[in-house]
Each structure stands twice: as structure tokens, then as C-alpha cells.
Structures
1.
Amino acid sequence: MSTCISGLPAALTPFGRRRLTVTANDRLGAYRVLRTADPDGPRPVAGQFAMLAAVERWGGGEDERPFLPRAFSYARWQGGEAHFLLEDVGPGTHRLCELAAGDEIWLLGPLGRGFALPQSARRPLLVGGGVGIAPLAIWQDALLAEGSAVALSVLLGFRDGAHAEGAALLTNAILASDDGSVGHRGVVTDLLDSELDRDAQAAVYACGPPPMLEAVRALCERRQVPAQLALESGMACGFGACFGCVVPTRAGYVRLCVDGPVLDTGELERI
Amino acid sequence: MSVSFCGIELAHPVINGSGTFDALAAQRVFGDALHEHFPFAAFVSKTITLQPRAGNPPPRLWEAQAGMINSIGLPNKGLDAYLQEDLPELARLSVPLITNVMGSTAEELAELACACDERAEIAAIELNVSCPNVKTGLDIGADPTQLSSVIKRVRPATVKPLIVKLTPNSADVAACALAAEGAGADAVSLINTLRAYAPAPARRGGERSPGPWLGGGTGGLSGPAVRPVALAQVSAVVARVSIPVVGMGGIQTADHARQFLDLGATLIAIGSESFRDPLVAGQIAQALAA
């Protein structure tokens, strides 16, 4: 069971999906931030996720999809509202991107194991790529609230300038972009390498596309820096029923939904 | 709405399809609420094999038109660990337990059935006969003659009710059901997933890579897409056998459940729909009782 910032265990997930009302769905560069009121939902631990589906017209899109709900990391929890970062990349995200205030969604969550606090001597170093920055935003919120603001560093990488606008979800981020339109031209792991040169007493928290996470994993392993990675996998259920979301670890296949999505790099051979 | 099934009294006719609900994982996630609102009238385990299985390499899922294709590969901790670790935990559920087993030979299935027979926690045994015969490559359950000989070997190994989970990937499912009944099966359940293939999708930028998406090559199609097939097969089987039939395949609502019950199914099972809504089976049971 994961521990939240206060050291208390994460709350149990309410059994059953909740029918919630969308309060906003605002453009943020190439992304959207979907907000929903969740008055009865437990406060999520950073790194946890929820399964989302639109109540109306879930199905009937391209190829008659979507059918299954989609897994999203919580990006923020504020005043009884859950925030999720969306990128329109397929029939499920497309439908969710269409939703407007007043529309209804199904939400099952919070689910999974989230991030855990660093050992006190290490400064938190948050590394995100693309839409994977979402769980780092709620983690930064938690760390700032805890008073870890002094040494907290945030490194974010994006494809281009439109995607880099997503960085507004976090504060004081150092940016990289593939096309050089914003910040360092190159990948975010270039920035991570420099940061660890400067001060290797860090605990890395990362989320992003698999090649980025593999680069973070290899870099942290080489430098013997502890790292927690929030992984992604296609999921049918989110609560351990389907066994569809497994990833290979040193201990064999594990289900990301119940044994992740946050895994220590020590558990992973490679991504 | 209580129903008697092979001598087992059930509170309602809605159970789960094997491998579509992990009660132990759900207990970790949802806590006691799972027990207070347990959706199923009996709990069917994932498929258990003699030896542990890791399952297929990912990716294991593909969303299809109105359904999904899975290539999970029956991961499980093996018979011994299931009996020692999981069964005592599962026995805490308030409903009867059905253990689903699979072997690649009749001898393996008989050994599994014999081990289950000794455990009081198990109310019934379901045989997964969708395993390929190592010699012919055909599913054991796809050929009536072969299925009959397998069940005749397993039947003496247990006095518990024996349910045969029929494969839909056969030429004549009703002939297989009749063979199962003739060999001593107490009930049949259907349909299992339909063998299906998902091509790898184009990557961003349109680059295509030929070959399958799923790590297992092919998978099994489930969800509402298969419901018309399931209704046809259940209808054909009910017409040929007199033992109880558990009908499943794409059931999402109480109306869908009634379609199977109207055809003569004794129980119905929920599979993929529980992935979308873990409470749906209980809601269907309530609606059927109303």
C-alpha cells in the first residue's frame, strides 16, 4: 500500500464508478485540462490515477470506439475538484476533450500506488515528458505544501512550443523541446544529466513516454540515484481484474493498476 | 430470484466469467465494501493450471469495435499456491466458489479436479477446454469425440459438480455440449472468447509495422460485439442438452441477461462489462429480481 505525503496510507477506493459533473475543460496549448467536481471522492495520492469515461456517447466514434474507460493520472486536486490533463490522440481522449462544463463523466478512483517521499537527505527532482507531466503537478503541489520547496527542481520536455504550454501546470520548470522552440533544444534527460552533475543528492520522480523513462532509468542507475517512475500501459479495468496492464519487472510481470503505476527503478530491468 | 444450479443454491442467477474479476485484488483496492456489495451470486476463479504460468508478453489488450481483444495467457500461480494461499482468502467471500482449471491433457485435468475435490471451500469445478492439444493443435474442446474422452477421464476424479466451459471456436458447439453431457458433465458454460487478431496500429507519422499488436499473436474477442454469436450458440446448445447452461458473451444490461435466460440459460455470467463498471453484475441481478 502506498503512503501519502503525510505518511498515512492511501484511502481505499470507493467500490463502483461515480457519476460526476464536468466543471471546466480548458485548452492549455496542445492539451486540455478537464476538471470535475468529486464531492464524495477521497483525496488522491500523487501518482494515483482514475478510470474515466463520458456518460453520453462513449462509443460511436472512430471504429465505433471507445468501449473501455481510459486511465489518467490525477494532475491536481483542489477544492473537491479533480483535474486531468488530456491530449487528443485517439477515440477515448477525443471524446473526453469534447466535454464541456455540465456534461457528465464516470470516474472510478483513485487507483494504484502513488509516489513516496524521498529520503530526507535527497532533494526531489521531477522529470516529465509530454502529457506525462500530469502526476508531477500534483506531486509538486504536495511537496510544496510539505515545505520541500527550497531544493525542488522540475525538468520538463515537450515536442514543440504548443505542447510546452502544458508546463504552466507546474511552477519554476526548466524546459526542453525537440524542435528548440522553447528552452533547451533536445531531450529532457540532457537537463537531468546536467542537474545531477550539479548535485547528485537527488531523488528522481519521472513520468513520460517509454523511451524517456528508459533513458531516465538508465541514467539514474548509472549514477546510483533513486528514482520512482510513473509508467503507463493500456488498461481495461484499473482494479486488477483483467491482467492486461502488466509490465516486466525483476519479479516477473506485475499489474501496473494495483502494483503501480509508480515503480522504483530498482524493480525494473528496463522499460 | 434465487436459483438452484447443480444442487448449489444461489441468491440470483448472475455470476462472473472466469478471468474477468480478481476478488483478491478487488479486496485490496476496495476493502470491505467489496464484501458488502459483492456483485456475483457465485465466484468463478481465474483459470488455474498445475504449474505456475507467467502469461503472455505485453501488449495484452486491444480495444475492438464494441469490445476488446485480450491475450492475457492465463497467468496464475499454479495449483499448489492457489490451494494454499488464495483459496482460504476466497473462502471469505459470502458466495459459493467455482474453481476453473485447465490442462493440456486429460491426465492433467483429472489431477486438477482431484485436488479441487478434496477442498470443501470449492463448490464446483469448471473445466477450461480451450487449451490446444499438443499433438493436433486443435482445442481439446473443439472436437466432440476428444472432449468426450477427456471428460470421461476427469469425471471419476470428483464428486463435485463439473461445468464444462465450451469453446466457441469449434465447428458445432451443440455437438460438443451433447458430448460433454454424455460424458458426465453437470453443466456447460458458454461462450468463451472468439479467436481474434489485431494488426499493429500505425505509429505517429503514419509509419506501419506489419504483424500483430498483441504479444500473444492472437487473442480472444469479448464484449458486446460477440453477444449475437453468444445468443446463437446458447440457443443451439439449450436445444440439444438437458443439463443447465451458463450463458455469457457481451451482456451489459438486465435486458441482455433476459435474452439469455429466455433462451433457457439457468445462469448468466458477466465478463468484459465488469471492467467498465465493477458493480454492473449486482445492478443486473437487482433489475432481474424487480
Note: Chain B touches chain A at residues 19-22, 25-26, 28-31, 33-34, 37, 54-55, 57-68, 70, 72, 75, 223-224, 272, 274-279 (CB under 8 Å).
2.
Amino acid sequence: MRAFLAIIRVTIRQTLRLRRAIGLVILSGAATAMYLLIILASRNSTGSLAGQRQDAIDAAVGLSASVFMNILVPVVTLIIATSVLGDERRDNTMSFLVLRPIRRFNIGAAKVVAAFLEAFTVTGIGAASLGVLVAIKIHSFAWLVPLVVGAAIATAAYAAIFVPLGYLLKRATLIGLTYVFIWENGIVAAIPGLATLSPWRIGLSATAALAPAEFTEHIPTDFALGSLNPGAGGALAKAVIMGIAAAALVASILRRRDLAGGSS
Amino acid sequence: MTTKPALAANPTIEVNDVSKWFGQKVAVSAVSCSFGPGLTGLLGPNGAGKTTLLRMLTGLTLPSQGEVLIEGARPRSNVDRYRDIGFVPEESALYDALSAREYLTYAATLSRVKDPRAAADRALETVDLTGDANRRVGGFSKGMRQRTKVAAALVHDPKILVLDEPLNGTDPVQRAHLIHLLGELAANGKTVIVSSHVLQEVERMTARVIAIVDGKLAAAGDIAAIRRAMSHIPYRVLVQCDKPREFAAALLGNTAITSVSLEEDRIHLETTDLLALGRVVARYASDLDVRLATFAPEDESLESVFRYLVDGR
Amino acid sequence: MTDDSGVVYDLGYKPYEGQRLGRSGAIKAMIKDGLRRSFGIRRKARKKIYPWLLAGIAFLPAIAFVAFAFLWGSFSPDSESPFGGHAQYISLVGTVIILFVASAAPNLLIPDREDGVLAVYSSRPMTVWDYILGRVGALFAVAATFFIVPNLVMYVGLAALDKAGFASALVNNLDDLVKVLVTMFAYVVGYGAPALLIATYAKRVGPAVGVYLATIFISPAFAEIFKVIDLPGGRFGTLVSLQQHPEVIRNWAFGESQGDIPMTSVGFEPWVSAVFIAAVGALTMYLMARRYRREL
């Protein structure tokens, strides 16, 4: 356990430097910034209170589904998760890590957990800030936890995909972005039946299950959920299974393949 | 007792007919040797396959053919085996964000040492980095980084130590310290394998070497014995005396000597039979009343042996 | 007794006595190197996949379109072709350019810093601006090629089919080519400058690509919000849409409707987008010079 926690600690320290963390938090907060603008603008609105409330909910759902979850969460997690093992390979520190009496699965699991914790620190701030603003606007904190939980599940699922990718491929970020923009936001959007293969939709299904009914009423179902039904338990299970599979994949790579390094 | 020089007595590591290729390039070809307690130098020119071989010894790279056994088992068969291995890679393998103490504590923690902090402090003291323990590794000089890597390999007190070019970037004082340290570790029964280009230092460290050229085992065993085994290459001997011209002229034409050359007061002799040459030189010196100042082989050094192995002259 | 005279033997070393090309030669060499890096020329096959795939997406439809027109007789490209005219084709190429510069700009700048090669450049008789012009020139050249080649194919191909005759069609449609060139500058600078700016400060290629794409694709959403909300000075917020300024120039050049583009919807004229693009380009060059003056 000590070694497991030590790997997580050092990984986060090595990959999450201050400047990068600040940049990623700003990126993650883009949806919150947009929502803030909407709130500031609506202060002068002359419509009815109920109408204003509906507009605020509409905007929150729209931003969650079409900016925060489908662009910001995957991009932030991609940048962080691909570096967790990718940087070890690039910096030639793999030999330091693997020549230790630690089970390969534990190394893989520690890396996936580190990627999740690091990425969720950033996406969680984004989700929480958006949730707080929504709560202030519609006078209900019922949205805060669902947004954060949905972001956590999506982040975990992306971490599971991008950690092994970062080790296996040199252009992992580019491949990951292709996956996000072309596969998830293009192909899966066109074929709702594939929604279960889209991590941000899995996360959003958890948000939809936990949030008040008005969230689901406003959601653009075909694009945002596809064939997925709202369900937090199912989403959490999927994320956990993906995490375990990722750890097993990393373990398999470490056991079977030549580990990157110099030669003479 | 072993009769083959490439095989160590009481081997800790056995390399059995190991080959490694990367696509079309054969990096290591059918190498069989073993390493036991003590210090063994692994030599070879750039691109010979030394690093590939070392990485196979530690399990970082899998052989394409053959097997490597550490105490009878393959390196990757059981992760607990890594408690007994310390590796110093050639490339930089350091976490720049950590201080030296943090880095070594991390290494000790991962190696399941009982008191990682104390082990880290001991390792820092061993490599003389206690004064810089709290400085970030990212700000270290090349020599300090090298010492940090050595410390990380020692922190868990492994039985086997594999070092790839550990003297790179070190100044003469640090080098002497490291050589002394490695010698002590070897004397304490550890299996120490050092790959290096600094041949004079390898010569100081050990008499047992394994030489790899073009991926193949070129020579193994005691340095002087390897030189003696190269009987097709004449020995070069330096003779200095009080009457160099007269002595050189007298030696010319003797059947035990294949070549005589005179360079001021230095006579360079070549012979295929060192013993016969010794007798001849002693007899002529006595007959001609010549006082010998020097009679020394010129090409029994590791550098000469290495040069003969690599390019055959 | 020693002799105090000396002699130097010619061991075969000869100093270079050929042509010295000067700073322009250095810049051209850097541009050539940049082109090779961007297209993966003389590199492993893996490095060629992405750029050549994008080149295929940019070039092949135009080539196919002209071939189609040759095989099935002439028709008016503006009304009947699946690609419309140059303006519509440019919107396809625009996306390709975004995807291309997202990867090319970081790969031109960051490896030099990562691999410690800047010291090699600084030991040569070249200035900071030579280095910047070399790298920017390479990106500009490749992105411009993506733009010019398919449009040139369409221009020449359709002229060959024109009933008025090839030469006449070339002359009559020359203004289309001018519009393509003007739009090209807007797209290449408008999309290339932010990519270079991010790559100037990013430490690794991967995050630079991610941040650039996220910024480009999210900025229109911000602009939309500024368009609909009623905040004092809010209309200036529509200018943050980095993705859409080149589109404004395209629509203006080809006389197309500006549609729902936020900055034109709130009343900004196209020249504002031109100034914005130029300002981003100038700021990028300034910041690059500042950064590299420290490094080189």
C-alpha cells in the first residue's frame, strides 16, 4: 500500500506543475465563465421569474452537455492522463519504476488513480464552480453534486483510456483528440446506439440520474445521451471496470513488452 | 570449478545463448556467459550491444532467443526478485521535481525497505550527497545526477548491481570514490557488473572482463589471460638500458624476436614468445654488460587488448 | 640538441571554400527543414500518416471534382457542383488547416527546446528573427499549400472546361484567384498565429495541441454568448471567436452572406476581423521574439 500511494504521490508531483495546473484550471473553468456572463446579462432581464429560471436551467444544461462534458473534461483529462506514463517513457524513468518488487497491476492501478486524481482536481473545480453558479441562480444546490459526480465518472473513464494510450503511442494526444472530436462528437453523435462507448455521455448519464428531473427535460437527449438511460450506478460501474481494465492492460504491457529505454 | 573463462564460479546471473534483434538489426548474437560475486567489467565499442545485454540481465528487455536467469529464474518471473537488483542506467532516470532525499526515499519505499528515510540518508552518505540532499535533482550537475542514480540503485542493499557507464560525467575525485565504492561492494560478495568506456578505470576496478564486439562475445576472463590467448598478435615489449643502440643491434636477427625498433633510448621489441624473449634479453644483457632499466610489456593493458579485439591490430 | 623550427603537415583537412549563402540561406534551410518535419519527409512512415491524410482530405475532393467535370461534361460549378465554388471549398480546407497547424506548430518549435538544439542555432551566424522567420515561414508555406493547390486545381480545371475558352476563362476568373489569395492569408495567419503562440510557451507537444484545439473550438461558444447577452461593451466579446474571423474575411471576399457569425451580427464590419487577425499575428511575432531572445 505504501508503494502504491508513493507512486500516486510522485506521479502527481512530477506531472502537475503549477503553470500547467493553472492553465488547465482556466480551461476547465471556461464553461463557468460562460455561465457567469449569462447570469450577469440576465440581471437586467424583464421576463418573468419562472421564465428566467427556465432560461438559466436551459443554459446550464446546454453548457454542461455541449461545452463542459464533451470538450473540456476530455481535453483536460487527455493532457494529464497521457503524460502520466508517457512522461515516464520520454524521461527514461521507466526502468526506475519497473525494477522494483511491486506487482505490475499495482503500478498500472496507481498510474490510473494518479491520472484520475490529478485530472479530477481540475475538472472537479470546473464542475463545482459551474454547479455553485447554477445554485446561486436557481436557488437550489440540488445540481452541485450531480455535476461533480458526472465529471468524476467521465474523468475516470477518460483516464482509463488515455493512460495506456500515453505509453503506447508517441502521438497519444493527437490520437486522443481524434477520438474525442471525430469519434465521440461526430460518429457517436450520429449513431446514438454507440453512446455507451462515449465516456462523457456515461458521465452525463450519472448527472442526469442524480440531478432534478428538469435537467433531463432540458437535455438534448439524442446528442447528449444517445441510447444511454440515466443511471449513476451503471455509470460508476462502467468507469470502475474501465479503470481496472486499464490497470490490467498496463500490467500486461509491463510484463510482456520491452520497456522503452536507451541502447548502445 | 569452471573451465570456461566466460562462466563465473558460483554464478548469480547466467546468460544462455542469448540473442536480441530489433527488426533487421541484431544487437546481441548468441552470447553465453555468467556473472558471480565480485566485479566484472563489460566492455565494447559504441553499438556493440552492451546496454542491450545489461537491459536483458535486468529484465527490462526480453531476449529474442535464449534466456537470462537470475539465481535460477527469469528476471520477470517474480517481481520479488527485483529486491535483489540495483540498476544504474546510462540515460537520465531521475524525477526532476523531487529533491535527492525524496527521490531516494521514493526508491526505498518502492523497494519495500523497512525504514525508507533512514535508508535514503545512508545512501546519500555513501555517495557523498548529504550536503545537497534537499536540493531538487533537476538542478544537479551531471556528476551529481550520476551519484544520485548510483545511490538509488544501492538504497535497498541489493545483491546484484548492474551499472551502465556509471563514470560518465564524474570528475576524477568522484570517479575515484565510485571505483573504491564498487570495489568494496564487490569485495563484500555482491555481484557487480560495470559497463564502461573508461578502460583505465575498469582496469583499476577488476581483472575480469567480458568484451562484446558487434553483438558477439569477443573475449572473457582475466585481462592478461585474454592477451595471452591472442597468440596471433605479437607482443610488444619496451626495453630501456644504458647502451640502447648496441643492445638493439645485438638483438636484431634473434629468432625469438620478430621486430626491433629504436626510438632514442627506447627499444621496442615484438615477439610471439614472451618467455623466450625474456631469456634472450637476460642473456644478451649479461653477455654485453648492459644495465637494464626497463623490461615491460606495452600491450597488456586493457586498452591494447580492447583495440586488438575491436580492430585486430 | 633540439631544433626550434616547426612545420605543419597537411593531414587532409581543408577549410570550406564553397559558396556561403548568408542569412537568407539560413532562413531557407530552416524553412526546408520545417517542411520536412511537417510532412514527415525523410522520417518514419508513421510520421507521414497524419499530414498526408489531411493533405488528401484537402486536395482529393478538388481533383475528383475536376475529373468528374471532365468526364461528365461541363457544368456551372457555382450552382450544380457538390462543392459549390471556391468559397464553399475553403470552408472544408479551413478545418483541415486547423487540424494541421494544431500539430505542425508545436512540432516545429517545441522539439528544438526539448532536445536542447537551440544552442546549435545560436552558435550560427543567424539572429532570433532568422529563426522565427524560418519556422513561421515553414508553417505558412505548408498551410498555404493546403489552401492554394486545391483551389488552383479547381481554377485551372474549370477554366479548361469553360465554353469561352481556356485563356479567356483564366483571365475572366482571375479575380477568384485574387480572392483565394486574400482569404488564404486570413486563414493561415488567423489559425496559424494562435498555434504558434501556444507552442512558444508550451513545454510538450501533446498539451499544446490539446489547448489549441480546445481554444479554437470553444471560442465560438463564448462569442455566441456575448452576441445574445446584453452587457455593456459585450459586443466586443464576440471578437474572441478565433475560429470565425477568417470565415468573415472569406464571406466578404466572395460576397457571401455573413449569416449568423457573432461579430458581424453585432455590427462589426469585416475590416475589424482583418485588423484582429493582423493584431494576433503581430502579437504572436512579438512574443515569439521576446521568448526566443532569452533562449537563443
Note: The radius of gyration of chain A is 19 Å.
